[in-house]
Design a protein that fits this description.
heterodimer, A: alpha/beta, Rossmann fold, Alpha-Beta Plaits, elongated, B: mainly alpha, two-stranded antiparallel ribbon, 11 helices, globular
Chain lengths: ~300, ~260
């Protein structure tokens, strides 16, 4: 186990933004914090690396208490914060070289390590570029490279792909998979369910600062929603509600239409009954984490 | 984050070196103000005011105006460079560039980053003080041993005003607000503290207020070749007290902006 968080609480005045969060993270594991904006993801991550002081609770990284032994604990961490706090006073290469000095990696060693990482994240051709000349995706790659300078055993990625285009997100996902393969523990916060589903071995679902459920993405989907859902547009609540009750399935409104869980035994019958009502649109798909989140919180992840 | 974590020399040096490296990369532009400003002032006051003022009375003796002026200009250079670095540049690194936040994700502690920033602001003050002194030496107004012996004073003044700048950076919420202490405290101090004329020419109440300000103590002490004031030990203690208070307040104003 590389990280252990015990009963973390954070309170601002009367408002508790994180309430009793506990979890562990193993080597080579990607753990995802999934939650809508304001769920407490960033505050929790802040407590994990020492930027936010917990009101209660402890965090240990490889047995080191982050509050009491922060310097040694952070020697083993790589941190990608939400904002690109790259140093605009340096070019791409120097951003890495000077950041390396904070880990006591200097001179030739720093130069070599910076070169390796630039190649690893595909920025070798940008070494002499100013930060202002990089696109959002290239900046995120550089922030990730910077977080890996000290060969960390645990990497915190706080909403690392927010604002990136699909290609850049795919690149980022590939790099996270590589970290996992190298045995690095990765803690990822995101509100993208496809990202969480694809990358994470295990998920903690957060709402109002509390863990409302946890498990592997597949387990969460099956136990909370089921295998499949139907999306239907153009029918009224008066039609949907009795049908859902008759089949004993969960339903809710979704955009202009409705979402219903497909019952495992008589899904075809439900589909046929809905088709008979001539909806504008009727589609069936595999359930996903967005549905889990909707069911558990009544909120969409994007909110 | 552990604010009480012990400082390491490496941590402070690494934080200081980041700023030094940026300065070094634009050294030509950066070295212009500390050299050109005193030169311009000496030319202006030397050719413009000296024929009008001639000798002035300072500390009970007649001295040439430029000899009186040179240490005052050193004090002003120290004030503006260290305060400006602490207030404006540190504020930008704190609030816009978020350089502090980035460094604090590494093993460096808050105290080390703070100390590195303070020492860097002080370094800018020392550069200004020494450059101004160098120009005055070239002009024949001061001697090289004077400059060497004055280095501890230059450093103390630079630390004090650098910390005052950092305190400003910790207190203000927008960069425009940095102008408030600049115009309410720094500019009055720079004009009234006996840098360009002896404070004895001021009305007594104003003289007493000006004399209590730290720049007055620094200017008085830097004029040691013209005779130390009778209260020089108090002046030194006063400077030290200001420095300690500013450092503590600056530390306390910035810490809550980084750790919640």
């Amino acid at each position: 186990m590389v990280l252990q968080a015990n009963d973390l609480w954070k309170q601002y005045g009367d408002r508790a933004v994180v309430q009793g969060v506990s979890f562990t993270l193993g080597r080579g594991e990607v753990l995802g914090f999934l939650g809508a904006n304001g769920a407490g993801k960033t505050t929790t991550v802040g407590m994990l690396y020492g930027a936010v002081i917990p009101t209660r609770g402890t965090v240990e990284v490889n047995g080191l208490n982050v509050q009491a032994q922060g310097r040694r604990a952070r020697q083993q961490m790589g941190i990608v914060t939400q904002d690109d706090n790259l140093d605009p006073d340096f070019n791409v290469l120097d951003n890495l070289r000077y950041f390396a000095s904070f880990y006591r990696i200097t001179g030739k060693t720093a130069q070599v390590r910076a070169g390796e990482l630039l190649a690893e994240v595909g920025l070798q051709d940008y070494a002499r570029h100013r930060i202002s000349e990089l696109s959002g995706g290239l900046k995120r790659r550089l922030v990730l490279a910077r977080a890996l300078l000290n060969r960390p055993q645990i990497v915190f990625l706080d909403e690392p792909t927010t604002g990136l285009d699909p290609d850049a997100r795919q690149d980022f996902w590939r790099m996270v998979t590589q970290l996992k393969q190298q045995g690095c523990g990765v803690l990822l916060t995101t509100h993208y369910m496809d990202e969480a589903q694809r990358l994470c071995d295990r998920l903690l679902l957060l709402q109002n600062g509390q863990v409302i459920d946890s498990g592997t993405p597949e387990t969460l989907i099956i136990k909370t929603v089921g295998e499949e859902v139907i999306e239907v547009d153009g029918l009224t609540r008066e039609v949907i509600e009795p049908l859902a009750a008759e089949f004993g399935v969960w339903w809710r409104s979704l955009g202009m239409g409705y979402l219903l869980v497909v019952p495992p035994s008589n899904g075809e019958q439900l589909w046929a009954r809905l088709s008979d009502r001539h909806p504008h649109r009727l589609s069936r798909r595999r359930a996903n984490l967005e549905d889990v989140f909707l069911r558990l919180t009544g909120q969409s992840l994007g909110n | 984050m552990q604010p009480q974590a012990p400082l390491t020399l490496w941590g402070v040096y690494a934080a200081w070196r980041r700023n030094a490296r940026v300065y070094q990369s634009t050294w030509l532009v950066n070295s212009l103000p500390p050299l050109s400003e005193p030169l311009i002032y000496l030319v202006a006051f030397g050719f413009g005011l000296t024929p009008l003022v001639g000798q002035i009375t300072y500390n009970g003796q007649e001295v040439a105006y430029l000899r009186f002026l040179a240490p005052g200009m050193m004090a002003v250079g120290i004030l503006f460079q260290s305060y400006g670095e602490g207030a404006y540049a540190s504020y930008i690194r704190l609030s816009y560039q978020r350089t502090w936040h980035a460094i604090l994700t590494t093993p460096l502690t808050f105290s080390e980053v703070f100390a590195g920033e303070l020492l860097w602001a002080a370094t800018k003050g020392v550069i200004a003080g020494v450059a101004t002194g160098g120009v005055a030496i070239a002009w024949g107004l001061l001697s090289f041993p004077y400059l060497l012996l004055s280095l501890p004073l230059i450093l103390l003044g630079s630390l004090l005003f650098g910390a005052a700048g950092l305190l400003t950076a910790g207190l203000v919420r927008t960069i425009d607000q940095v102008n408030v202490p600049l115009f309410l405290a720094v500019v009055p101090m720079f004009t009234l503290c006996g840098t360009y004329f002896p404070r004895t020419t001021l009305p007594t109440p104003l003289n007493e207020i000006a004399s209590a300000l730290p720049l007055a103590a620094l200017a008085d002490l830097l004029r040691w070749p013209l005779g130390l004031p009778s209260h020089w030990v108090w002046s030194l203690g006063w400077l030290l007290l200001w420095a300690v208070v500013c450092i503590v307040l600056a530390w306390r104003s910035i810490y809550p902006r980084l750790f919640r």
